[in-house]
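Hi Y.,

Following your request, here is the sequence exactly as I used it, all 270 residues.
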Amino acid sequence: MISRTERLLNHTVLAFVSILVLFPVVWFFFTALSPNQGGQLDFGNLHWGNFGTAWRLGGFGHAMLASAVITIGAVTGQTVLAILSGFAFGVLGVAGQRVIFPVVLLGLMISAEVFIVPLYYTFQSLGLTNSWLGLIIIQIGMGVPFGTFWMRATFRAVPVSLVEAAEMDGARAWRILWQILLPISRPAVLTLALLSFMWTWNDFFLSLIFIADPSIQPATLALGVFQGRHSVDVNLLAAGSLIVALPVLVLYAFFQRHFIRGVLNGALKE
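Below is the corresponding structure, written out as tokens. Let me know if you'd prefer a different format.
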């Protein structure tokens, strides 16, 4: 049993760490509200109009729509393929999986910079550069290796007796997956979707390479262009950065309990 002194010490340490983590965030937020171009803090004169100015000057309306389309498409594809491949490798057993699964995991070890040039010319020949569809396909391909590993570990942690009981009752593979395994693995699936959303939304490198048309560029590229045009407007840069980061922050705020539980469950699995 934890003593009162130990509990007080734990709370003190956690409070101190929380302050260290939150202080830069709060500082950045008030910088975005600064009426001064240089971003000097002025708590008595908060300028909320900085967000509207940044939104208008940065053209974030079209950019946020582009990011939403790309991210939703990529996250949906990554999650579905990860569930199916994780089920195949973790429960059904795939012929030659001792060779195929390590090959899939190579996607986690090879940096995008290694194959970006041949990938670009391949997509250019297919007419998929400078398009949302091409970027969605690339993001799906980049995310499937991790998703496969994640869902395989999740499904293999389910007691084998549960799957065997379902098979004895006449349940086929699809029913076992959708009605038994997925409800049990909901925190892990939600965590995977949130991670995929965060990685895809925050992507800059792939978007920079494959998207050249300013009218379809995602939010991260729009923020980069905005930074180049308004490098001296620190308050507007902070406001634009918060605008781009807002969807990720909102999703995490709503699903943080599921996210933390999914990560902790994943840490206890193989």
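The mean pLDDT is 85.

Thanks again,
Q.
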